[in-house]
Amino acid sequence: MTPNALAEHFHSSRQAVSKHIQILTECELVKQEQKGREIYYHINADKIKEIDQWIDQFKNILQTKFSQLDNVLLTLKKKKK
Hints:
By secondary structure, the protein is an alpha+beta fold. It has three helices and two strands, in the order ααββα. The chain has a two-stranded antiparallel ribbon. It is elongated.
C-alpha cells in the first residue's frame, strides 16, 4: 500500500504514517517498491518470522518459569491443609 492508502485506515496524518513506515523500513519489517511516482510498501514476511522465532525463546522461558511457580504454589497450598 502507499502511505496515503495506509493513512486512510488510521486516525493519523500521512506524515505520521510515513514516519512509522520509515522506522519499519529501517528495521526491515517492510519493503518498499517504486511504481512510477508512487512508493508501495509490503510486509517483509521473512523478517516477521525471524522476530517471531526470537520472541518464542522468551515465551518458552516464561512458560517454564510459570510452570515452576505453579508447582511451588500447589506445594505450599497442600502444606497449609
